[in-house]
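Recall the central idea of this unit: under ordinary conditions, the amino acid sequence of a chain determines the structure it adopts. In this exercise we apply that idea directly, starting from the sequence alone.
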Amino acid sequence: MPHPVAGCCQIAISPGDIDSNVVKVERALDNLAATNCTIAVLPEMWSCGFPYRSLAAMARQTPLLLEKVRQWAVERRMVIVGSLPEADGGRIFNTSYVMDHTGELRGAYRKVHLFSLHGEHKHFAHGNTPVVVSTSLGHLGVMICYDLRFPELSRRLALDGADILCFSALWPETRIDHWSLLLRARAIENQLFVLGCNGCGREGNLRYGGSSLIVSPMGTVLARAGEGEEVITAEIDMEEIRNFRSHIDCFGDRVPGAYEPDRAEGE
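Accordingly, the structure predicted from this sequence is:
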């Protein structure tokens, strides 16, 4: 039986231009569908980037965009993960949605760690709940960009049963080495697959670094994008997770009482 194929849609997001970005994503998904891809990860804020002055207007379009994502998922029979601005109760969240291939919205994760260096905390509300989503492919842990720098969040997702970590990002070129290293570290330390989809191109004075990655539980880079627009794919063998964990039992060998005094010993 063939292994599932995972993919990342690395696009240059046009700030504030939803129609243009929808066309780019749809084209990228078509390219992935031709490879029999079963899960696709999109960049952070894929519909609009970060046009702070018009963020509320962008967020009002998200319900319509989710219907578009539902259509894409069903037509291409793939799980689709990606973040969009979400308006709720007068606040805006950076929220990553997980749409199953059946067209069912399986879950949504609100970005916990907001990037204060670029003022995200002035425009978005913090999420506060880690999310593991059950899909036709497996259990997905969902994270967004800056979350990558906080290993405690990915460990929480792994403890909660994640088989794959899905990162949507707009990571700058100036720190792209950190992106690659941290994605591999999250895969190795949690013994699972990591799909990291970054954007590319420019937004104002900021240049995004591309370099989307698909990483195995052993930290092997299965696919890597360049600096421009492209899709990447790789087969992912879910047995590799179980084999690695049975060989090196990092989770069974944990001693949480030594460094997480508020947590139970057997977690």
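Helices lie at 18-33, 55-60, 62-76, 151-159, 176-190, 239-247, 256-259.
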